[in-house]
Amino acid sequence: MADLKLTDVKKSFGNVAVLHGIDLDIKHGEFVVLVGASGCGKSTLLRLIAGLDEITSGSMEIGGEEVNGIAPAKRGIAMVFQSYALYPHMSVFKNMAFGLKVTGSDKASIQKKVEQAAKTLGIDHLLKRLPRELSGGQRQRVAIGRAIVRDPKVFLFDEPLSNLDAALRVQTRVEIGKLHKELGATIVYVTHDQVEAMTLGDKIVVMNAGRIEQCGTPLQLYQHPQTLFVAGFIGSPKMNFIEGIVKHISEDCLVLTLSDGTITKAYVDSSGCNLDDVVTFGIRPEHLTEDSSADVSLLATVTLVEQLGEASYLYLTLADGTEMVMRTSGESTTIIGEQVEVGFNPESGHVFDADGGALTRLRAGNTKSVAELAQIKAQLSN
Amino acid sequence: MKIRHDRAKALMVHAVLLTYTLIALFPIWVVIINAFKSRKAIFNDPLALPTADTFSIVGFEEVLLRSEFDVFFSNSMIVTLTSIFFVLLFGAMIAWALTEYKFKGNLLIAVLVAMGIMIPIRLGTVSILQLMSDLNLVNTLTALVLVYIAQGLPLAVYILSEFIRQIPKDLKEAARCDGVGEIKIFFAIIVPLIKPAMATVAVFTMIPIWNDLWFPLILAPSEGNQTITLGVQQFIGQFVTDWNSVLAALTLAILPILVLYLIFSRQLIRGLTSGAVK
Amino acid sequence: MTKTSAGKPFPWHILFFLGPGLLIYFSVSVYPLLDTLRLSFFHESSDGSLAFAGLANFTKLLFDVVWSEPFWNATWNNLVFFFIHMLVQNPIGLLLAVLLSSPKLRLSGTYRTLIFMPTMLSVVIIGFVWQLLLSPLWGITENFMWNLGLEDYFDAWLGKESSALVTLAFISVWQFVGIPMMLIYAALLSIPDELSDASVVDGANPWQAFFYIKLPLILPTIGMVSILTFVANFNAFELVYTIKGALAGPNYSTDIMGTLFYRTFFGFQLQEGSLTMGAAVATLMFLVILLGVALYLFFFQRRIKRFQL
């Protein structure tokens, strides 16, 4: 079993602390995505798992074995680099064989493993080419192939799609997803792109400033972001935030006055709230409608319209100057300068306290946790 | 365990580099410290620093008295600075013309200039001397300047071309749309943009000119026109047994370069390692 | 951006940009070189007039014992001089570059600056400095070796026929080791870190990473360093002239192409200088350098492709 367990892992470069104590538990076969803005420490964490950098304190186990101080090649990991890091002077075959060759595998088994991996990836006709004679997508596959032949317990991907153009990125994303199913391997995947994270990950780890903000399934992060940061990070366009003041508290519901004067309910756990607390109310663009008969409606001026075809984004300004975005039907005829009434269902709202922590939502679709999903998966496969 | 291993490795690396650094510096160090000692001290204990007892600048006094070090120095300055100025100016102009305009003979000129990087100008010395004597320039600093401009141009054109190629087309085209003339475009837009590259070229051009012995020896060997390199060579050849003077002359030749180098080493090394020369 | 001459006014601005620089370059560099090649086919009579002599100068240089012996001697010495640079200077430069590029090395900038320093100084100065250091009169080297228990091996190396050339070569190596060091160091820096990381993850030890990954990638630079060394060595003059004079003693044992050219052209002591024979020596030097550069371009650079990183 290739579980990966990190306990209170810290890393500093000189006096600069980059990771402030990471706890992470990755089960065998899981596809885990580390996501965050650049500089949040996600790549550093990946390099620590790879063993390219030493952890400053804490412990790290792969398959139940402490790997602190063990050389990268002996940790049972393989890594796919952002730039692919193919050896430019070696053919595709030699690139894939290099790791096996330097660790002393015999020629026949190298030949077999490389050919097999090449076939899996559909690059068996390219084995004699040099990297520079390959397209971006082909290089990407070679880099993955180089990882596969070493038969690792854990695959590490460092932003592997960032050098591909948009169309190829979608295609390769799908292929990586399939590959994961085929190999059944444990994958740790770093990206700054939340769409990649949502589509690929069984489990997503959102990182910010050297800490884990939240860890969960894609839907958990979408429906129950635990912090303002996660709420803003997951989802595109990002969630709208409006300042509000708590005016009334009941057991399963708050009544807020938003900064533009609108009054709304919010179905959240109100146990820690006091009257007149300043909170942040969050509502996703896709949960706003142009339907004026909705439970709550805001009066706004349209400042910009982006028409994407299947949908349009309206950029709005409320009476107090707060800016918002809404996603509406592509058929919408709203134009710039128009006054609109924007409605939403209070059940789709989020509330964050002054420290940026989320108040638990009570009426949103309850999503299953990673552990629950794993259980269901296991039952299904039995 | 790995950390200890790493530390041992780092220590080894430092040991080797430090050893070689000492090998590189030791000879220069010995010459400089002994230049400030009395003759007796030079021989009794060459590796000792000058002390109150052994301190002496008699060598320097001799050198300044018996040779025209100030003249040599200013000759070298004049020749080097003038040459660098024209190498940069003409080099940038040629580089610009060759990269920017298409005209007949462009490739031929580019190839002829590029050949100058590899083929030393010294091989033409026989005819250069004849040419200079035809022009009545033998024993003048002008002759040296002309030769050094010709010597420095190829590398300057090469390096500056690389930089000029990286200047976005839009800049020039915007200027042309505004009706700015070609010559104005070059001086007002291109030259300011390639200044960093020019600094690199200046350093690369300066060193061989300042240090050259061959052409001063052949073209301007007479009294009053020697450069510092030739002057030191002739002086030491004459006073070879006067150790104080020899050491002082060497020190006088080394120190200015040493100071300049320590000031500009960053610039130079950045130029060398930035791939300006390939 | 194209300005063709057809139908347009004469492109004066091109002339303005090219004119002054090319005038100097062609008249002081290209023309003299071509004229030197031309002169090598002429004979100069005592009244100074020139007469076409065909290949006579070259047959003299290559086959007439009076001329050919010094010529082949200088050629051979120059080859020895070059091989010592290739075998000592460039490997040491490579080693220093590799050490300097070790990750997270402290003081790397300081080492680099100091080791490169001798390269900046004039060959003339360096020549005198080492002449003093190796002088048995002063005895610095002798004392030094005595301290190491090697005093029996000390000799007046610069004065002996058997060791003078090698000693000069080592002095030159000492001075110029900074050049291969810097160029190879720059090449090593340009190898992306991810490649080294990839080789570590692949399980390569430092030696394997060097021989399989880094060395092949810096081969083009090593090739360039070699050709630069070749051209510089076959053009060398100052060091021998400074330490051993134009006669390149003892008994011409340190004579190289540069000093031979100088003596042939200007004459020295009993030997009378000759314009045309000097031109012939320069022409042969030109051919040797051309041959070296051609070999490099056609064999070395063609085989070792520059890899896109």
Give an overview of the whole structure.
The complex is a heterotrimer of chains A (382), B (278) and C (309). Chain A is an alpha+beta fold and 382 residues long. Helix content of chain A is 25%, strand content 33%. Chain A folds into two domains: 4-231, P-loop containing nucleotide triphosphate hydrolases (Rossmann fold); 237-352, Nucleic acid-binding proteins (OB fold (Dihydrolipoamide Acetyltransferase, E2P), Beta Barrel). In chain A, the strands form four sheets. In chain A, strands 6-7-8-3-9-10 form a six-stranded mixed sheet, sandwiched between helices. A five-stranded antiparallel sheet of chain A has the order 13-12-11-14-20. The longest helix of chain A has 18 residues, at 166-183. The model of chain A has no long low-confidence stretch (mean pLDDT 88). By secondary structure, chain B is mainly alpha-helical. Chain B is globular and about 75 Å long. Chain C is mainly alpha-helical. Chain C has a single domain (56-303), classed as MetI-like (MetI-like fold), CATH 1.10.3720. In chain C, a hairpin with a 5-residue loop joins strand 1 and strand 2 (50-52). The two termini of chain C are 31 Å apart. Residues 1-5 of chain C have low confidence and may be disordered. Chains in contact: A-B, A-C, B-C. At the B-C interface, helix 1, helix 4, helix 5, helix 6 and helix 7 of B face helix 1, helix 3, helix 4, helix 5 and helix 8 of C.
Quick tags:
heterotrimer, A: 382 residues, alpha+beta, Rossmann fold, OB fold (Dihydrolipoamide Acetyltransferase, E2P), 2 domains, elongated, C: 309 residues, mainly alpha, MetI-like fold, two-stranded antiparallel ribbon, 13 helices, globular, disordered N terminus
